[in-house]
């Protein structure tokens, strides 16, 4: 999409501009001295040009196209395709949809933003390689909130994603099309991403199962991220069993994702096969309820479903995690400045090793410098707020947030010492009606509202699954089960036992 700029030493004005970013006011002598050394450094960069690949290599020839409205009445897809995997495997016969920030070589990846129309990755994301090797067929790239900055389902540049239970309402996001496509039956399973609840909110609103795995369990290589310490990728499906089957396939280290360290993989599908309520202990987090005056009916539905779980044999009791009330602030303190830094680093970031898409970084840099005014209002707000807080308070709140993260992990771990899982509503709001002509303030309020029961676990890294738990006013509601870090097997086992209770 872009051509590298000519490598040359900076002018004096460019040196002054670079210095000003670091609050330096260079003297004329310093400019003269530094110019020589910078020129020498720039000359060494010629070796990088010589050593890096001269081209991206040949992308697979994979046909794709935009769907028609008749084919896609919920607007769940950005593009449709048919990329067939191996002849057999655990996912043979399964159709898979990919959130459109997951690279599928030879197929356009827009991240839900017109800024990236025409960008075609040349390699598959690790999760895609694994899905295809397991026999799955990729059926398309799924619509999402622009650049994954939002949660309502109404912020894609390709139009809102509609709720399969009532198309006059939104699906939730940012993995909007994933939930809508799964529930409508357009795909069997989907891969979503989640930096603050983006798998779980649409799962709750549309009525499917959505898993945010333990941090680092599923490799993020080849997926466009937001911030290295909160990014997660995970499966979405109509059943817990299908989520577990997909997790069996995609989990595990790939040696290229800096988010992964000493990953231990479980036997997830096996864990759910014989799950029963009898050997399940659930601690219901008091602070997870009563967050929204309009959410009384949702809270009541979740409590009723958990009471039914107890009646079926599960041990269900209340617990208190006082820090949960402020956990969203901890996530925000970390997330705002990390996301801002990620954007400044051309969407690739600093200080980590791994495998990175140079062509995507170039496309991102081009978009940021030439078309940033087209960013969604949520991303603009993030950048302005994150930069202000970083500059005005010199990173102190970011540092404090990172230190408080350890307290947050300890608080949830303490609550989990006597229970298999914690439980709370996934979100205590019902879907929003599709509306045109919303102000920026209305869009932001819809996109970022009620993160409290989702975002904290992106900061802490605990696995969370949202499971359908009844309905309110004709829309499904979801309960979240939170487990110990690294124990996704238990989270899925509890979810499967609960699912069978709800269905019976």
From TrEMBL:
Q: Name one Pfam family in it.
A: Amidase
Tell whether Repeat is among the UniProt keywords.
no
InterPro entries on file: Amidase, Amidase_dom, AS_sf
Which residue ranges does the record annotate as region Disordered? 50-73
**Species:** Salinirubellus salinus
User: What ranges does the record list as Basic and acidic residues composition bias?
Assistant: 50-69
Domain Amidase as annotated: residue spans: 85-492
Enzyme Commission numbers on file: 3.5.1.4
Alphabetic keyword roster: Hydrolase
Q: Which PANTHER family match?
A: AMIDASE (PTHR11895:SF170), TRANSAMIDASE (PTHR11895)
Q: Which domain of life is it from?
A: Archaea
Q: What is this protein called?
A: Amidase
Q: Output the Gene3D superfamilies linked to this UniProt entry.
A: Amidase signature (AS) domain, Glu-tRNAGln amidotransferase C subunit, N-terminal domain
Q: Name one GO molecular function term.
A: amidase activity
Q: Which SUPFAM superfamilies match?
A: Amidase signature (AS) enzymes
């Amino acid at each position: 999409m872009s051509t590298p700029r000519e490598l040359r030493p900076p002018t004096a004005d460019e040196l002054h501009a670079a210095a000003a970013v670091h609050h330096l006011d260079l003297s004329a002598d310093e400019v003269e001295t530094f110019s020589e050394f910078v020129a020498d450094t720039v000359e060494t960069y010629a070796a990088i040009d010589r050593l890096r690949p001269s081209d991206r290599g040949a992308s697979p020839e994979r046909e794709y196209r935009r769907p028609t409205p008749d084919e896609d009445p919920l607007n769940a897809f950005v593009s449709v395709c048919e990329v067939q995997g191996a002849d057999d495997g655990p996912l043979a016969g399964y159709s898979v949809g990919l959130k459109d920030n997951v690279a599928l070589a030879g197929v356009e990846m827009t991240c839900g933003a017109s800024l990236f129309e025409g960008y075609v990755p040349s390699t598959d994301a690790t999760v895609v390689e694994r899905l295809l090797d397991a026999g799955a067929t990729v059926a398309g790239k799924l619509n999402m909130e622009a650049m994954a900055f939002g949660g309502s389902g109404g912020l894609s540049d390709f139009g809102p994603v509609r709720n399969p239970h009532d198309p006059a309402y939104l699906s939730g996001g940012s993995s909007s099309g994933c939930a809508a496509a799964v529930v409508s039956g357009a795909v069997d399973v989907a891969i979503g991403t989640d930096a603050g609840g983006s798998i779980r909110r649409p799962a709750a609103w549309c009525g499917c199962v959505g898993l945010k795995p333990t941090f680092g369990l599923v490799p993020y290589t080849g997926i466009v991220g937001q911030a290295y310490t909160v990014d997660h990728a995970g499966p979405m499906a109509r059943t817990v069993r299908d989520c577990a089957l997909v997790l069996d396939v995609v989990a595990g280290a790939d040696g290229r994702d800096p988010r992964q360290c000493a990953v231990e993989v479980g036997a997830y599908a096996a864990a759910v096969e014989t799950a029963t309520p009898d050997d399940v202990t659930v601690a219901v987090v008091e602070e997870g309820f009563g967050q929204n005056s309009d959410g009384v009916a949702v809270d009541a539905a979740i409590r009723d479903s958990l009471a039914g779980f107890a009646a079926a044999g599960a041990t269900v009791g209340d617990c208190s995690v006082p820090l949960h009330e402020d956990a969203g602030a901890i996530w925000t303190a970390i997330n705002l400045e990390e996301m801002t830094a990620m954007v400044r680093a051309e969407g690739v970031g600093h200080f980590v090793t791994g495998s990175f898409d140079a062509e995507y970084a170039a496309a991102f840099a081009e978009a940021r410098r030439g078309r940033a005014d087209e960013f969604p209002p949520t991303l603009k707000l993030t950048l302005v707020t994150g930069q202000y807080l970083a500059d005005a308070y010199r990173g102190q709140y970011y540092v404090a947030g990172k230190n408080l993260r350890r307290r947050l992990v300890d608080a949830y771990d303490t609550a989990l010492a006597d229970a298999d899982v914690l439980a709370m509503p996934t979100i205590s709001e019902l879907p929003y009606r599709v509306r045109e002509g919303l102000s920026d303030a209305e869009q932001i309020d819809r996109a970022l509202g009620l993160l409290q029961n989702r975002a904290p676990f992106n900061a802490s890294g605990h696995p969370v699954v949202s499971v359908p738990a009844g309905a309110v006013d004709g829309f499904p509601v979801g309960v979240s089960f939170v487990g110990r870090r690294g124990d996704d097997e238990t989270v899925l086992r509890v979810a499967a036992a609960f699912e069978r209770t709800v269905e019976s």
